[in-house]
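User: Please fill in residues for this 323-position structure.
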């Protein structure tokens, strides 16, 4: 049996696939199988994937219809996996040749570590590095993700994961298959935040480890699921749903709860005020807000005023353009 099962879930990433797969095959750690999944792509993805089928370590799994969820593909891949560890290598990213070697060594050294992950570069469509993908975590802790650490998962959930997804990219993670299966895998009802909930669930079973060396390249482009979500409030609703779930597993300090409630008020209030958000989504958002924040009403004024100011500014700008 291979030590690592590498799962590449793909949908319409033909232009990135060869770089992705070549960076996997060039890993210094070679004891792996490679499971290539395609979710009914409409580009040349399948032709490219089939080019790699001659390698005896490669298995293909093509869907006849689109699953509609990246996390269904994750779960499908893990069910097929024969390895002790799993690396979900997203099809539009790529890796340093030492990624597997470094992260597998961490897992081998400590059996209580549910998953290990490394820092990631942000890269553009044309492979230009654009800083680190964890830039948004400075708000939580200015220096934590600049050095290696191994942390108790429950503490990590209580202090950090309850506020934000502190694991920016699945392609930078190697995890224990047994723990993934024990927590029930990825939540397929979530389209955007299934990874966040999964990391929290796995962390709660033991420990998690981090390497500050950037061994992964996380690609940002307009066709990504997260980019598309910026045009609606589904991301807000899913964030709150995951935060509520984590808050039911651990009790954050009052300081952490206050910080996250204040931060998210500037997301959920505009969503509630928007005429483009469906009523059922608004009801879901409000239900989760009430469960997370006992003082939600007192936070409404500032984000509501800011939302009104932005609406008025857009209105006047549109009026000036017309005249």
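Assistant: Residues filled in for all 323 positions:
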């Amino acid at each position: 049996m291979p030590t690592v099962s590498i799962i590449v879930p793909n949908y319409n990433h033909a232009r990135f696939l060869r770089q992705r797969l070549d960076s996997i095959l060039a890993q210094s750690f070679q004891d792996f199988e490679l499971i290539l999944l395609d979710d009914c792509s409409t580009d040349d993805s399948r032709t490219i994937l089939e080019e790699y089928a001659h390698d005896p370590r490669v298995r293909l799994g093509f869907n006849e219809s689109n699953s509609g969820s990246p996390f269904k593909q994750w779960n499908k891949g893990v069910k097929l996996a024969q390895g002790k560890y799993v690396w979900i290598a997203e099809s539009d990213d790529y890796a340093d040749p030492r990624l597997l070697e470094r992260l597998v060594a961490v897992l081998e050294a400590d059996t209580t570590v549910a998953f290990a992950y490394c820092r990631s570069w942000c890269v553009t469509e044309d492979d230009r590095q654009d800083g680190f993908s964890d830039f948004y975590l400075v708000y939580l802790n200015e220096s934590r993700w600049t050095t290696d650490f191994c942390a108790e998962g429950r503490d990590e959930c209580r202090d950090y994961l309850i506020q934000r997804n502190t694991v920016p990219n699945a392609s930078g993670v190697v995890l224990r298959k047994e723990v993934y299966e024990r927590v029930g895998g990825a939540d397929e009802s979530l389209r955007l935040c299934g990874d966040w909930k999964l990391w929290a669930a796995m962390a709660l079973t033991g420990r998690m480890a981090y390497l500050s060396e950037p061994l992964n390249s996380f690609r940002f482009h307009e066709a990504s699921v997260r980019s598309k979500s910026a045009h609606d409030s589904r991301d807000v609703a899913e964030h709150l749903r995951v935060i509520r779930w984590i808050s039911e597993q651990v009790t954050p300090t009052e300081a952490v709860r206050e910080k996250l409630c204040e931060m998210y008020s500037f997301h959920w209030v505009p969503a509630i005020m928007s005429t483009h958000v469906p009523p059922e989504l608004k009801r879901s958002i409000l239900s989760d807000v009430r469960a997370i924040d006992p003082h939600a009403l007192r936070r409404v004024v500032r984000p509501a005023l800011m939302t009104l100011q932005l609406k008025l500014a857009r209105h006047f700008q549109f009026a000036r353009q017309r005249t």
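For context: The radius of gyration is 21 Å.
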